[in-house]
Design a protein that fits this description.
heterodimer, A: 171 residues, alpha+beta, Arc Repressor Mutant, subunit A, Glutaredoxin, 2 domains, four-stranded mixed β-sheet, 4 strands, B: 417 residues, alpha/beta, Rossmann fold, Ubiquitin-like (UB roll), de novo design (two linked rop proteins), 3 domains, globular
Chain lengths: 171, 417
């Protein structure tokens, strides 16, 4: 049974309606977003489900996941805190911001906090160069921007994400 | 100029609500076009306005539309909202604060080329903006401004959003089309051009968000009105994204032909920390480094002047300011890191070239470089030029070559003694 189709029949109908009937492959990106909405990454089962719906091979789905940075096939922190350190941000102190932030919460770039809540990542331009330092939070199927940040304000955002994760884990 | 054209939301509160947008003349241009103009009239008006693509290439928009053959159907229009060039954040402001003017422009472009389906391709990071656009599209359909038989005519149009997922290369128009088709976002070999074989191998127009936001104004007020500001060859206004070492970074809407000096010192407040300006990048990370002397500061920012006077493209007008504290070897490490990360891997000169350029840049930054590495760095960059499948590879060499040639002491200072 196609678990994805069982779980999100209406969403999938709407996705497929965006593209010509004989171009189901176009749905692969929105389907991957749908599949990683809850857990933050795409499971082997979901890859097979997506391939069936989009009428492509699982290798095709895998290659798309590998190509784009916002798609994930590995479980990391529930929230990914993605800090931009590209040139314009770096000119406004983004490298030092990231270094101090990592020191503050005790993880390195690419690592996850011990509670599994937050992974810190370094990313390329987020189109917010005038409000650097900035980061986005990817998680729960959303992306949220946090701009004009200080290490303190960023640490507060991360603490909130950790609190939120703890609440959901302990019912 | 007293009134803003594209950033009108700064003058008009809540312009992102349909009611307010309509109260300020919104969708009058669309109604006028669909009910009283022929598609070719809309196309010709945009052609006479001289509007040029605001995504970076500066190609005349009306001319681009006119390339679509009338014996191949259906036609598609795709709005490029993949804004990812380091230093560029203008389309984001339009999408967030003046979205209907962009959507109306997209609808006018669709009518002009008789497309019944149009897509908005947004970079994945613009998730919130995509959610908001979906809501606005539904609202337009409910209000009878979008959908079947527009204004009681035979013309029907549907708009859809398509969200990217973090890939700079998808701003390149053929990579963008591949991405919508569900393939890896890698550029196509051209010809054929998208105007003939674009989305799903059908004739397709791809326009930048800012470009499209100009179209309702041109249809409402006419090409002659549009030409009242800007220069003869670069008419109209442009949003300049100002970033880097300035006191007041941000978006500034100015007539094309405004000088760098005015942007940086009058509006941008000058250089932060009382330091002196060293160089300018006019087109984001894809730029040549321009030495910020009087000749550069007094150069008008339009497509011809910047290219002809300073030998650098204006591109998307993402103006990054570098002050005297910035070492250009450090800068080249930043830009090559970006392009190595964003190279799609399809063609060898770019995939390998960006890797090796960044490798050498990193060596310079970590005190492991010899004097020969500077020449090697320049040689790798120049060997890539003219050999890559798309502009990304070419762009990746711009900052490298121009900074080594103009600021060589910066690199020599990084060489292990």
């Amino acid at each position: 049974m196609n678990q994805l189709l069982l779980k999100y029949p209406e969403e999938i109908r709407q996705i497929l309606a965006k593209y010509p009937a004989d171009r189901k492959k176009s749905a692969v990106m929105p389907l991957i977003y749908l599949a990683q909405r809850e857990s933050g990454f795409v499971t082997k089962q979901s890859i097979a489900d997506i391939a069936e719906i989009a009428e492509i091979s699982t290798t095709d789905v895998d290659s798309i996941i590998g190509f784009y940075t916002l798609f994930h096939d590995q479980q990391e922190g529930r929230y990914r805190v993605q800090v931009c350190t590209d040139l314009p941000c770096a000119l406004r102190g983004a490298d030092e911001f990231l270094r101090q932030l990592c020191e503050n919460i005790g993880v390195k770039v690419g690592e996850t906090t011990p509670d599994g809540a937050v992974t810190i990542e370094e990313v390329t331009c987020l189109a917010g160069c005038h409000r650097a330092p900035l980061f986005q939070v990817q998680g729960d199927g959303k992306i949220t921007y946090h701009e004009n940040q200080t290490v303190e304000s960023a640490a507060r955002v991360i603490a909130e994400l950790q609190k939120h994760t703890a609440r959901e884990v302990k019912p | 100029m007293s009134e803003l054209w594209l950033l009108r939301h700064r003058d008009i509160p809540n312009l992102s609500s349909l009611e307010v947008y309509q109260a300020h003349g919104g969708f009058k241009a669309l109604k006028k076009a669909v009910t009283s103009m022929q598609p070719v009239d809309v196309l010709n008006e945009v052609k006479s306005s001289g509007l040029r693509g605001r995504g970076g290439a500066g190609f005349p928009t009306g001319v681009k539309w006119s390339f679509l053959p009338n014996n191949l159907w259906p036609h598609y229009v795709v709005a490029n909202a993949d804004e990812s060039e380091p230093g560029t954040f203008k389309d984001r402001e339009i999408l967030e604060s003046n979205p209907y003017q962009f959507l109306e422009g997209l609808m006018l472009a669709s009518f002009a080329v008789q497309a019944n389906t149009a897509y908005v391709y947004l970079r994945g990071e613009f998730w919130q903006q995509a959610v908001d656009l979906d809501e606005k599209i539904a609202e337009l359909e409910k209000a009878g401004l979008l959908g079947d038989h527009l204004f009681g005519t035979d013309y029907s149009l549907r708009l859809y959003t398509h969200l990217g997922a973090g890939a700079y290369i998808c701003g390149e128009e053929t990579a963008l089309l591949e991405s919508i088709e569900g393939n890896l976002g890698q550029p196509r070999l051209r010809p054929p051009f998208p105007a003939v074989a674009g989305l799903y191998a059908r004739p397709t127009v791809i326009n930048n968000v800012e470009t499209l936001a100009n179209v309702p104004l041109i249809i409402q007020h006419g090409a002659a009105w549009f030409r009242q500001v800007g220069t003869e060859k670069s008419p109209g206004v442009k949003i300049f994204s100002l970033s880097g070492c300035v006191k007041n970074p941000g978006n500034y809407e100015l007539p094309l032909g405004t000088t760098f000096r005015h942007l940086i010192y009058e509006l941008g407040g000058g250089i932060s920390g009382g330091r002196r300006i060293k160089a300018i990048m006019a087109a984001g990370a894809s730029s040549n480094l321009i030495i910020a002397d009087d000749k550069a500061l007094d150069c008008p920012m339009d497509y011809e002047s910047v290219q002809n006077t300073l030998g650098a493209p204006l591109g998307s007008a993402s103006v990054i300011i570098l002050d005297e504290s910035v070492n250009m070897s450090w800068l080249a490490n930043k830009t090559t890191h970006f392009f190595r990360h964003e190279s799609c891997g399809k063609c060898t000169p770019c995939r390998e070239g960006t890797y090796w350029m960044n490798h050498i840049a990193h060596r310079l930054e970590t005190d492991h470089a010899s004097k020969d590495d500077i020449d090697l760095f320049e040689a790798v960059a120049t060997q890539m030029q003219g050999k890559c499948l798309c502009a990304l590879g070419e762009f990746s060499t711009m900052a490298v070559v121009s900074s080594i040639r103009q600021f060589r002491p910066d690199f020599e200072a990084r060489v292990r003694s």
